[in-house]
Amino acid sequence: MIQVNQLTKKYGGVEVVNIPDLSIVQGESFGLVGNNGAGKTTFFRMILDLIRPTSGNVISKEVAVNTSEDWKFYTGSFLDESFLIDYLTPDEYFDFLASLHGYSQGDLSDFLSQFEDLFNDEILGKKKYIRDLSKGNQKKVGVVAALMGNPEVLVLDEPFANLDPTTQIRLKNLLRELKEKKNLTMLISSHDLNHITEVCERIVILEKGLIQKDIQTSETTLKDLEEYFTVQ
Amino acid sequence: MIQHLLSHGFKNYFRSPVWGKSLAVNIILGLLALYMLSMILLIGIFLLEVVEQIAPDSDPLFVVNGIVLYYFGAEFLLRFFLQNTPVLFIQPYLHLPLKKGRIIHFMLRKSFLSAFNLIAIFLFLPFTIRYLIPEVGATAAFGWMGTLFGLVVLNHYFGLYFKKKLNEVPNLIFILFGTMIGLWLLDYFQLVQFSLVSAWFMDQFINQPILALVPILIGLGFYRANYQFLRNNTYPEEISTKKASSKIRGDFGFLKKFGRVGELIAVELKLILRHKRPRNTLVLSGLLLGYGLIFYPNETYQEMSWIFVFVGVFITGLFFINHGQFLLSWQSGHFDFILTQKLNVKEYLESKYWMFVASCSVAFVISLAYAYFGWKIALINFCAFLFNIGINIPIVMRLSMFNPKKIDLNRGAAFNYEGVGAAQWLMIFPVLLAPYALYAPLLVLGYEIAGILAVGLVGLIGFVFHKRVLHLLTQNLINKRHKISAGFRAQ
User: What percent of chain B has pLDDT over 70?
Assistant: First the structure.
């Protein structure tokens, strides 16, 4: 699904990402962990063609993301607030996205009804702009927006941060469900080792832009990860 | 502490990723500024000769005194349009053990180190030394120059204060322009001759040099007013986000009929209506439709009807000039969103293009009322309209992609003149001059109507090929997307 070739990004001579070869197959849930500055977000931005790589490329469905806009049509993503149009209300925002995805009003309300629990009655139908929502609620809007249009690939940067415990658990279940039912390819980064091991079947540790470990999740993964980061 | 703040200011400027990438432009602009300043200095040095040339029989001091008020009026306008209000991100300093007052004083004092403040000194100091000191004595000359310096201080801090107030009370701009126009009319119809007022005014300071303290003190008063204003508005709450607004404006459901492009226009219209700054530009564009009233009924302009092409371009195109100059910057907050959505860059630019075409069309239809002043005016406006939609909109769109700067739409009233860069100031030249490239030669040869029609025809040709043009613009944006989005993210 996604193939990374000789991908590097340098800022002022310092390499922040250097991934010679990485492939993520369809339906894989790929977790990225690493301390601050490990290059997680930079890597994700290169996957979404928001940053020009210093060398190498990211290939999505056999097409390099920087040469065509095709990937946009099957990739849902939420990295940060710049993915939201903050002067719209959540309803208007979803409405606008629905038009991009070719949803009818019915499709849209069907789609949104799945997330009633997640929204906890704080998002929809409120006369509030996205910019006036709390960080957690903004994140909910962004994550749900990323799921619109039945994406085949989902890229989320720290989806659990800022969420309340209930929502964290709900989101975790939601992601697992999506993977099972829709065979969604997921790329998720997180600082929460617990959550990521529960959601992802493959975990990659990134440190200073380099892949340190690439493991299939098993019983002992959480322990291994904790050990790894304790030594640090 | 001052060193730290100074160095933060420099770093903020020089480390901005956009700065380094447009180094060449910055150098050119710097050289241009140096050139202008040296020209001003040159005029200043030979001011005496210039005045003697223009009015050989008058007392040079009388003539110079006569222009002082006009000069400061013009300087005020220049400052109003060109000078940036001092911006130093206050927020990161507020929680530190630093007195708020010191930061604000620092900001205000630093702002005084501005090239605008050199103009008056360059213009008038050589005159003082060469002519005034031998003529009226050192004390009087000192008083005279001191007054001018005081007026510079006054203009500087009054200008800053005015701009800040303007954010709070946008209608002040009408009061300003109303006053300016009123004064101009008074002068024009010779009800009051400001040159005489100015000469009399400046004379007082020659007679009583000590009076020079008055403008300086008033200037310092405005410094104080600025200080108070900033002091009262430093709460992050007031700077960053305003109160949650309960009223949700605008729906624009009808635009859905136009598909994706319509949807995008609807979102942009919401952007305009829900933020003070773009809303102000919209209102201003509406009001300036009345711009023609200054020109069309006026006898003087009937003989220089060439100026009507400029008026036509301005009237029918004001919205896209004003709004389009920040084409991408308005959306700098969610530019990543635009790049990652199911949305082609082409559709994105198309939506902008059609929105501007629509705005021009609306303005043109309204401007038809000017046909009252003659069919030629309607014809000129029609051709200017065609030129706008065919040529000028793409020009503005292209130039605005040149190094766009971030605009924080949610920034509240107190500090806000973001997004203005070199491109924004230079843009007006091609837009206003391009039609004359076609019109002027034919006008000179005596084929005025042909010239007007040529402007319209070229516009029409541009419009016919708008798909091709949009394609080129799309390519350009695609090539620059990484640089632009990095710039928006970093600032």
Answer: 88
- The reported pLDDT for the residue numbered B204 is 84
What are the tokens at B144? 């005279």
Q: What is the residue type of A127?
A: K
Residues 6+ apart with CB under 8 A from A180: none
Taking residues B389-402, report their average pLDDT: 91
Locus of tokens 């799309």: B474
Residue of B nearest to A90 (CA): B248
Max distance between CA atoms of chain A, in angstroms, equals 53
| SS3 label, residue A10 | strand
DSSP state of B331: G
How large is the greatest C-alpha to C-alpha distance in chain B, in angstroms?
77
Chain B residue with CA closest to A151: the answer is: B342
- In chain B, residues with a C-beta closer than 8 Å to the C-beta of A50 are 336, 339-340, 482, 485
Rounded mean pLDDT of A124-152? 89
Query: For residue B88, what pLDDT band results from cuts at 50, 70 and 90?
Result: low
Statement: residue B491 has pLDDT above 70: no
Distance CA B303, CA B299 (A): 8
Domains and CATH numbers, chain A: 1-74+153-232 (3.40.50.300), 75-150 (no CATH)
Interface contacts A/B by beta carbons within 8 Å:
86
- ipTM score of complex: 0.72
Residue A67: C-alpha distances to residues A49, A153, B473 (Å): 9, 18, 17
